[in-house]
Design brief:
Length: about 160
Amino acid sequence: MSAKTFFGDAKITECPITTPVVVPPETSISETVERMRERGRGYAMICVNGKFKGLFTEMDFLNKVGGKGVPPETPIQKLMRTDLVTITKNTTLTEAIEIMDRHKYRRIPVVDGEGNALGMITVLDIIRYLAEHFPAEVGNLPPRLDQHPVTPEGG
């Protein structure tokens, strides 16, 4: 069973787009992390005049900062990731899921045609959408969508 079976041609705009923490590239790592903590987000979008330039996540903090002696005043632009795939509001939920799976993303930036940051779609956003719109189907899914029980008891 594929994601297209559930979502059809639904666009990501049908799923709530999470409002991210947005900081300019010169923001210090300490201020960026503080803003992430205040907003309860595990990421910050780095933007210049509204245009998406990069992403910094809690995993980036653990892998690039934690225990490595990085000064707290280091600009976030030195630690952000810029090689990310983004999507637009015309992207379907199925396409978003496929991109997230292929690149092992837990979240994916949403931008407009000019590269302006609109927000973020997270795995949790998609799961919530799926559970709200298809409660019976989601509740009865096997652990793997391509899994079929051998017996009625699931064995």
